[in-house]
Design brief:
single chain; 2 domains
Length: 243
């Protein structure tokens, strides 16, 4: 067990060598912890905080994550590049499937962060775009080519953030184009991953139609690459089934 103290409050993490699990409990003053970072003790506490969040990952309960985000939004102005590791561990947390209250807080955190510190826009968009590929679990084929209601809700939450970022951050459009291009699934990834990704790229065009030519060209070029890499026997089998 490790305890990181900050005033009257603390961060407590539990590790089990046998089961390799981490429980996350949050109750502390984040602003004080960040302000003390210049001291040797403060630096150690900051590093332990980052590691605790990273290790807990998806095990962090909605309530604890909600409190963390509220604390973080309360000190957005001081989250400069010196706190990049803290920001990064928050960005990699899966959030789109969580409660509406937490989702709104997380979206607010992302928008506040990028508005106050534009240099975080790139890594924020990168993480948002990675979610276009769907969940990490085995990709199931969509019924009638459409995502499930739960998946659609998650995708909508992602696009809501991207849409606002495009409006408030002037450089975000070029960054988005770069992120979408660089994050495109590898040619040999599962077909459903490509379907999910393309579905979301096309969805961007609903609120950013001026990117139509760029993204359609990208999709066509990528699909040509997939077709070239596909075994001829599989293509013939698919064509036979269609007939």
């Amino acid at each position: 067990m490790s305890v990181v103290s900050s005033g009257r409050k603390s961060i407590i993490s539990f590790k089990s060598d046998k089961h390799k699990t981490v429980r996350f409990q949050l109750a502390y003053n984040l602003k004080n912890l960040f302000s003390d970072r210049l001291t040797e003790k403060g630096q150690k506490e900051y590093e332990e905080l980052v590691c605790t969040i990273r290790d807990a990952g998806q095990e962090i309960k909605d309530y604890d994550l909600l409190q963390l985000l509220k604390e973080a939004r309360g000190c957005i102005s001081i989250l400069d590049e010196n706190f990049r590791l803290f920001v990064q561990v928050l960005l990699i947390i899966k959030w789109t499937h969580r409660s509406e209250e937490l989702v709104q807080e997380y979206q607010g955190f992302l928008l506040d962060l990028c508005s106050a510190h534009n240099y975080y826009t790139k890594c924020t968009l990168e993480q948002l775009v990675l979610n276009f590929k769907g969940s990490d679990v085995e990709h199931a084929e969509w019924i009638d080519g459409k995502p499930s209601e739960d998946e659609e809700l998650c995708f909508s939450r992602i696009h809501n953030v991207i849409k606002v970022l495009l409006l408030v951050i002037p450089m975000s459009q070029d960054l988005l184009i770069s992120c979408v291009t660089n994050s495109f699934p590898y040619l040999k990834r599962k077909a459903q991953e490509h379907v999910s990704y393309i579905y979301n790229v096309l969805r961007i065009l609903q609120y950013k139609p001026d990117l139509r030519q760029i993204f359609l060209s990208l999709i066509v070029n990528k699909l040509i690459g997939v077709d070239v890499q596909s075994p001829r026997s599989e293509i013939q089998e698919e064509e036979t089934e269609v007939e």
